[in-house]
Amino acid sequence: MVTIREAQPALGFIAPDYNATVTRAVHWAVPFWMRQTTDLQQVEAKHLETLVQAYEQFEAGKIRLVLAFRHPSVNDPLALGYLFSQLMPPAAKDLGIKLRTPIHSHFMYDRGVPLWAGEIMGWLFSRLGGTSIMRGKLDRAGLKSARNLLLNGQLPFMAAPEGATNGHSEIVAPLEPGIAQLAFWCAEDLAKAQRSEQVVIIPIGLQYKYQHDAWPNIEALLTDLEAQVGIVSPDQGKVEQPLMYARLAQLGEQILHLMEQHYSQFYHLKLATIDPALPPSQQFAQRLQQLLQTALSVPEAYFNVTPKGSMTDRCRRLEQCAWDNIYRQDVDLDHLSVIERSLADRVATESEMHLWHMRLVERFVSVTGSYVREKPTIERFAETMSITWETVARLGGESSSLKRPKIGQQTATVTIGDPIIVSDRLAQYQTNRRQAKQSVETLTQELQTILEDMIV
User: Fold this and answer.
1) For residue 63, what are the β-bridge partners?
2) 96: left (phi over 0), alpha (psi -120 to 50) or beta
3) pTM
4) What are the φ/ψ torsions at residue 63 (nearest 5 degrees)?
């Protein structure tokens, strides 16, 4: 559904403006907000004493602290808010450690969030100490702010090295190098200022489990999605796992077929034939990847963008191209002629329409085609159903902010990893440019491995 009808003023950087009173109010509301609006009902923490002790060191001026958290779900901010507001205070008390309140952190968030969540979220994130970043280009203002918060902020600094949610509790998306680079910059800035603090990264895992049998709700959602794509299954109402997996596979096959047909018939894009000798799951995975490549080629052709980098990189580059056409920095919209304004509005509308293809791809970047087959648990089934639901909603023209279906009550487990002392690696980082790049890559891969090892 096209939601942009007119060209908009340029998107401005949203600076952090931390307000402890607003933070206390949000912390008070988190348990109620979480339980009333989402499936998330409980949050547990492992090795919380490590985080409490790190906060104590931060407040004593001994370290600058980076919290690198997994980002599988849109509910992660609530889970982490619950961690800070409900779990850390009693844990600190038990350890005999007195921390400043409210216990919180600065954080980095995508500048696009207030576009779909509402402008009030930009205001709220700012008061909670957040700093915005544009993902598809070099955002100098955003990077400068993040670098300053990490070096001088009154709170630790938190960010998701995956960059965005991938919808899978048990798959860590390839990490972006930004967190590692920020940590090394901070270590350099501290050394230049002759400050004694060390830069420390603490990895934080997040995983979601259903508290009770959610299969009936999953089956009901599956039945609804089947109806929307034109499937009438003789096994509707049955919650046996083999039958439901077969229905899920049929649902995925039908959606894939409809989309292949759509791009072939209306965009005249030829899809290669897949080897029929391959196992069905491999055929599906190859067809899905081919479809995603095809879908991205449509907006890339429109925006005249050369395919480059990972699929995630391509998605973000396309998003930025669309934003440049919608949120105009190159013209003063108030001083355009009637025709110029009309043309600007048309470009904005067409750009939003082409983003539709990218949004479909964005949801499927981490889909493997074998996630449920390898381990058909409630969690994996539900996560795949949620991604499928969102895809069907987009195909049906629904808004991206449509309320997600509730499947069952969940518990989030937050796992605190061992601290990584980045300052100890500074000398090697500073050897030369090549070694600096290698140091960032090595630290990023180490984080990737740690976060993957946290998955139960």
Assistant:
1) 198
2) left
3) 0.93
4) -140, 160
Q: Which two tokens stand for residue 64?
A: 């600058």
What are residue 205's DSSP bridge partners? 415
Distance CA 27, CA 24 (A): 5
Give 209's pLDDT tier (boundaries 50, 70, 90): very high
Residue 360 token pair: 């479909």
What pLDDT score was predicted for residue 402?
63
Average pLDDT of the chain, as a whole number: 94
CA distance linking residue 191 with residue 320, whole number of Å? 35
Residues, the chain: 456
Q: Which amino acid is at 359?
A: R
Q: Any residues with CB less than 8 A from the CB of 286 and at least 6 apart, and which?
A: 274, 278
Cβ atoms 356, 394 nearer than 8 A:
yes
Q: Does 399 have pLDDT greater than 70? A: no
Helix extents (H) in 153-202: 178-192
Element (H, E) at 455: none
Show the tokens assigned to 231.
């499937």
In whole angstroms, what is the distance from residue 395 CA to residue 380 CA? 23
- Pairwise CA distance, residues 357 & 291, whole Å: 11
- Count of CB atoms within 10 A of residue 369's CB? 20
CA distance 19 to 128: 6
Which residues, in sequence order, are bridge partners of residue 109?
132
Question: Can you read off the two tokens belonging to residue 285?
Answer: 């995975």
Identify the three-state secondary structure at position 161. Answer: coil
CA dist 12 and 15 (Å) reads 9
Kind and range of the H or E run holding 284: helix 280-303
* Token pair in block for residue 83: 């961690």
Structure tokens at 325: 């056409």
C-beta of residue 259 within 8 angstroms of C-beta of residue 291 = yes
What are the tens digits of pLDDT across the range 122-161? 999 999 999 999 988 889 999 999 999 999 999 999 999 9
- Rounded to an integer, what distance in angstroms lies between the CA atom of residue 201 and that of residue 166? 22
Query: Could you tell me which residues are beta bridge partners of residue 203?
Result: 68
| Stretch 78-105: mean pLDDT | 98
Task: Compute the distance between CA of residue 59 and CA of residue 88 in angstroms, rounded to an integer.
Answer: 15
Question: What residue type is 253 in one-letter code?
Answer: E
φ, ψ of residue 176 to 5 degrees: the values are -85, 155
pLDDT at 3: 64
**346 is written with which tokens?**
């048309």
